[in-house]
Each structure stands twice: as C-alpha cells, then as structure tokens.
Design goal:
Layout: H1 2-11, E1 19-20, H2 21-37, H3 42-56, E2 62-69, H4 88-99, E3 103-108, H5 112-124, E4 129-132, H6 141-150, E5 154-157, E6 176-177, E7 180-181, H7 183-191, E8 196-197, H8 205-218, H9 225-239
Parallel strand pairs: 1-2, 2-3, 3-4, 4-5, 5-8
Antiparallel strand pairs: 6-7
Helix pairs in contact: 3-4
Length: 243
C-alpha cells in the first residue's frame, strides 16, 4: 500500500493502479492451486474486502493480473500454474468487477479447457471486461477472432508479443517487430480496432525504450490513423475511465 500511494503521488494520472496481483500470487505460493481457487478461504475473503474498497473509492481501475494459466508462458517454472479460468474465486472477483464496471486482467494460454472456462466467465456478466494479457501469449489470430466475435467484453493487450522483450528463440510469438506486423494480425486488429491496446512488459529502462520504439515504428504506422489512435491510447482511456 505505501508503494502504491507513492506511485499515485509521484505519477498522478499516469499511474493506472490495479489490485490483486501480489495478493493472489501470495495465496498461490502458500497454498497452491486449491487455495487460489477456493472462494471460501479466509485469504480470498479478506482480499475481496480490500478489492471492493479499492474499486469503490476509485483507487483501482481493475483486478489483476490473475495468472489463471501461464503454464507455458513464464520463464520461471516456479511461477507457472494452471487454475480453472472460471474457478469459484475467480467468479467472485469477476462479479466484483461487474459491480463496479471494472476490468479484470487475466493471463491465459489457450488450452481448450481454459478457453471453455474463459468463455463461461465472459458470458456470465457482460458488465465486466477482461483484458487478456499478452493476447494469450502464443495465440494465433484464428484462436482470438472467434472469442472476440462472441464476447464484446473481451479486450487484448499486446505486451510480450514483440521484441526486444520477447527473446529471439521465442520470436514465433511476435505479432509485430521492426519490419511491421504480421498480415493476419494486422487484419485482426483492424477488424476489432476498439478492442486492442498497446502494452509493454519491459523490466529495465533500456528494454522499455527499445520496446516503445518498436511499437512506434513497427505497429502504429501500419494501422489506419483512427485505429492507431485507438490502439495507442484511446481504448485505454475508455476502458480505464481515464477521462
């Protein structure tokens, strides 16, 4: 909380806080998947109270990131996990987001059973929005398109899908690079221009600066001007109620 308050003070409107990532990670580390999924546990119940207060007072714009299935998307084996995407605890958090017209950030690689639960969750209440981090990590456009067609409350952010954050041996995950976007991804973004957001998963300053440059030269110039504005900042402004 003190660090959160410091960021809010120093960054002002540039700081877009979410609640829950560290709390849910701690619950997982202490109790595994069973604890993470258990809606009745004291830890989950306590976090629900904190999250509701944060959302109600406007301290948080949403909940997450919830690492529902990062079983093949994280370099640290000890951090990888696979929970049910519509587990009882996640349904409670999703319902809380719906109550406050907020966003749930979720990381999920598209295993069939994970996608099934993901769709049940999205369809259970359209007031909540899911921001699918890394747009599924290693998805193809053919996997993303039908989900976007069926679920108007699904959004994708594009972090960890372009260099330099994605290492060369995982370049197959790139949606775009310095030479431009892959044609099938460009087509998908233009098909849903109000549902994609730029993201940056850099952890050091030099990587952040380079990633920002790749977005500016390898993605935005290839989009229609109206789409580029939406993907770069307008979708985030609307989704996170920044205006």
């Amino acid at each position: 909380r003190p660090l959160w308050e410091r960021y809010a003070r120093d960054l002002g409107p540039r700081f877009i806080p979410f609640t829950g990532q560290s709390e849910l990670n701690r619950i997982y580390r202490h109790g595994g998947i069973a604890a993470m999924e258990d809606a009745t546990s004291p830890e989950i119940q306590e976090f629900l109270k904190e999250a509701e207060e944060d959302l109600k007072l406007g301290r948080a714009k949403g909940i997450g990131t919830i690492f529902a299935n990062n079983s093949r998307g994280h370099p640290d084996p000890g951090f990888r996990r696979k929970a049910r995407t519509d587990a009882p605890s996640i349904r409670l958090l999703y319902g809380l987001a719906a109550k406050y017209d907020a966003v749930v950030m979720m990381q999920m690689v598209p295993d069939p059973d994970s996608v099934e639960g993901f769709e049940r969750l999205l369809a259970s209440d359209r007031r909540a929005k899911i921001l699918w981090t890394q747009c599924g990590t290693d998805t193809a456009p053919g996997e993303v398109r039908p989900l976007m067609q069926r679920h108007p409350n699904l959004y994708c952010e594009l972090s960890w899908r372009y260099p330099p954050v994605v290492p060369p041996h995982l370049a197959f995950r790139n949606i775009f690079d310095e030479t431009g976007p892959k044609p099938e991804w460009l087509e998908l973004i233009e098909e849903f221009p109000d549902r994609f957001l730029v993201g940056n998963d850099a952890h050091i300053r030099s990587q952040y600066d380079r990633a920002t440059e790749v977005v500016r030269t390898g993605l935005l110039p290839y989009l229609k001007p109206a789409t580029a504005r939406m993907v770069a900042y307008e979708n985030a402004e609307r989704l996170f109620k920044l205006k």
